[in-house]
Amino acid sequence: MALDGCGQLCKCILILFNILFALVGFAMLGLGLWLRFSSESRGFFNIDLNTQQFVIGVSVLIVLGAVILLVAVFGDYGACNENRTALGVFSCLLAILAGVEIGAGVFVYMRSDEVGEQLAKFYMTVYAQYVDKGDPGLAVTLSMFHNVLHCCGLIGALDPLVKKTCPETGIWETFTLPACPTVIVNLFESKAPLVMGLFLGTAAMLITGLVCCSILMKQIKMSHLSAPCTTVRLCTEGTGPPPGPPPYSSTFFSTMRPNQMVVIQ
C-alpha cells in the first residue's frame, strides 16, 4: 500500500521544512565557528567580564546551529527514505526544540529588561572588537543586527566606524537612523509581547512539522502492515497442488505377450 494524498503531502512538507531548517542551522553553526576560531576573536574566550556576553552569544549560536542541523538531517533522511526510526528520533528532537522555544519566549517576556540589556552589551562588545580588529565574521554579525533592527552603530547612520555594515539610507534617514543599543533595549522593554510572539510562532511551526511527521509515520506503518498480506495472497493464488505421476497406458499392457519378461533398465 503506497502513501495516500495526505501522506505524500506531509512527506513533501517535511522535506522542504528540513531543507530550510538545515540551511538555517548550517548558517548559524558556520558563523558561530567562524567567530569562535577566528584569529581576531579567539582571544575573547579567555574569561573576561568585558567579553562575557560575546562568549555566551557565540556559544549559544554554535550549540543551537548544531542541534538544528542534526534535527534536519534526521528529518530529511526519515522523510526521503520513509524510515520510521529516523522519523521517531526527529519527532523527539523537534518536540524538545518546541518546548525550549516556548520556555525561551516566556523567559524573555518575564525578564525583558534584563535580556535587552545583555543583548545590548553583546552588541557593544561586537562593535568594539570590529572597530579594533576588522574581522569579517564580526562584520557579518553587525550587518545582521543593523538590517534586522534597522539601526546603525552607537550614534546612528553618521557613525563612520561601521558605516559599511549599516543599511542603505536616504538623505533624511541619515539623520534619523537610531543607534543600535537604544533600539535593542527599547525593543525588549516596549515590545516584549511581540518578541514572545516570535518565539511562540516559531514553536507553532515546529509543532506543525511534528504533526506532519506523526501522520507520515502512521501512513508508513499502515503500508508495511498491508504489504505481507498481499504477498501471501498472490503466492497462494499462483501455486497449485504438485502434479501426480502420469497414468499407466492400457495399450502397453495389451501389447504384452504371455510369458514375456519386462526388463527395466
Automatic annotation (TrEMBL):
<protein>
    <recommendedName>
        <fullName>Tetraspanin</fullName>
    </recommendedName>
</protein>
<feature type="transmembrane region" description="Helical">
    <location>
        <begin position="12"/>
        <end position="34"/>
    </location>
</feature>
<keyword id="KW-0812">Transmembrane</keyword>
<keyword id="KW-0564">Palmitate</keyword>
<keyword id="KW-1003">Cell membrane</keyword>
<keyword id="KW-0130">Cell adhesion</keyword>
<dbReference type="InterPro" id="IPR018499">
    <property type="entry name" value="Tetraspanin/Peripherin"/>
</dbReference>
<keyword id="KW-0449">Lipoprotein</keyword>
<keyword id="KW-0964">Secreted</keyword>
<keyword id="KW-1133">Transmembrane helix</keyword>
<comment type="subunit">
    <text>Interacts with SLC19A2. Interacts with NTRK1/TRKA.</text>
</comment>
<keyword id="KW-0325">Glycoprotein</keyword>
<dbReference type="InterPro" id="IPR008952">
    <property type="entry name" value="Tetraspanin_EC2_sf"/>
</dbReference>
<keyword id="KW-1015">Disulfide bond</keyword>
<comment type="similarity">
    <text>Belongs to the tetraspanin (TM4SF) family.</text>
</comment>
<dbReference type="InterPro" id="IPR042055">
    <property type="entry name" value="CD9_LEL"/>
</dbReference>
<dbReference type="GO" id="GO:0005576">
    <property type="term" value="C:extracellular region"/>
</dbReference>
<keyword id="KW-0472">Membrane</keyword>
<dbReference type="InterPro" id="IPR000301">
    <property type="entry name" value="Tetraspanin_animals"/>
</dbReference>
<feature type="transmembrane region" description="Helical">
    <location>
        <begin position="54"/>
        <end position="74"/>
    </location>
</feature>
<dbReference type="GO" id="GO:0007155">
    <property type="term" value="P:cell adhesion"/>
</dbReference>
<comment type="function">
    <text>Structural component of specialized membrane microdomains known as tetraspanin-enriched microdomains (TERMs), which act as platforms for receptor clustering and signaling. Participates thereby in diverse biological functions such as cell signal transduction, adhesion, migration and protein trafficking. Regulates neuronal differentiation in response to NGF by facilitating NGF-mediated activation of NTRK1/TRKA receptor tyrosine kinase and subsequent downstream signaling pathways. Plays a role in the inhibition of TNFalpha-induced apoptosis.</text>
</comment>
<feature type="disulfide bond">
    <location>
        <begin position="152"/>
        <end position="166"/>
    </location>
</feature>
<dbReference type="GO" id="GO:0007338">
    <property type="term" value="P:single fertilization"/>
</dbReference>
<dbReference type="GO" id="GO:0005886">
    <property type="term" value="C:plasma membrane"/>
</dbReference>
<feature type="transmembrane region" description="Helical">
    <location>
        <begin position="86"/>
        <end position="110"/>
    </location>
</feature>
<feature type="transmembrane region" description="Helical">
    <location>
        <begin position="194"/>
        <end position="217"/>
    </location>
</feature>
<dbReference type="Pfam" id="PF00335">
    <property type="entry name" value="Tetraspanin"/>
</dbReference>
<keyword id="KW-0278">Fertilization</keyword>
